[in-house]
Amino acid sequence: MRAGFARAAAPLGVTLMRVSVIQMCPSEDKAANIGEAGRLIEAAVAADRPELVSLPEVWTCVGGTRETKFAQAEELPAPAGGAAAGPAYDFLRGVARKHGLYVHGGSLIERQGDRLFNTTVVFDPAGHEIARYRKIHLFDIVTPDGAAYRESATFGGGEQIVTCRAGAFTLGLAICYDLRFPELFLALRRAGADLIMLPANFTLQTGKDHWETLIRARAIETQCWIAASASWGKHLDAKREPRFTYGHSLVCDPWGHVVAQASDGIGWASARVDGDLTRRVRQDMPVLEHRKLA
Description:
The model is unreliable at 1-13 (pLDDT under 50). α1 (30-48) packs parallel to α3 (87-99). This protein is 28% helix and 28% strand. It has a single domain (16-286), classed as 4-Layer Sandwich (Nitrilase/N-carbamoyl-D-aminoacid amidohydrolase). The protein is globular, with a radius of gyration of 18 Å. It has seven helices and 18 strands. It has helices spanning 30-48, 66-72, 87-99, 182-190, 204-222, 275-284, 287-290; strands spanning 16-23, 52-54, 102-104, 108-112, 115-123, 129-134, 140-142, 148-150, 155-156, 163-166, 169-173, 195-197, 225-228, 232-236, 242-246, 250-252, 258-261, 267-274. The termini are far apart. β11 (169-173), α4 and β12 form a beta-alpha-beta unit. It is an alpha/beta fold and 294 residues long.
């Protein structure tokens, strides 16, 4: 499924960026996941000509055992260098160079010694890495259907709040479960973010009730655009039990309106992010200036 960006003519002088959020159904097969990501990005670029594309959380390997995740993980090169890297990292920077666009790599499984991290990397149109963020909040819960998740058993947590510049916009970086912690989103706004990227692997049980509601709330609170790429469909966990993710990748504006959304299935959604709308919303309702706490 895909949703095209609005075609209405914009006033002269506005700041615009076309953004595509990619929705995948990844598995444990890293090579197949890279192939699917490539096909979806090519289709989105051909149809909607985005200047920024984003992939879901840990799209290179969803499901499987801890050993599988270690096998599929990549040691990331120094951000400033052009050193050889793993196939997913090379794929992302290659997409950026080929199409001359910003690539938000969702998140990859990063290996550092005997530790794993759930890590976002962002590339500029020349294929240079411009940001790296490790997921801060780890998903250790039991969902309403009784399924238990313990992300901290496999991954270490990040500690740094990260933003980067993409054209006229400042991107704030978050991943999935981070969505439930408004203080992180407020910190990103205070760090200058006006477009927050949120790759996710939201479970079906939590997603159907909370996904859109929480995104709209974070957008309204921070007066930021939010671009959320998500996984959809079934995968198998370490015990070969089926797990389901919600999908519904979307783009939300600073007033809390969902302006583009994918439904079930693989595909993408594209929207035109408007910096002038952000400025008007913040000017008319200067909530950051009015905050008394936190």
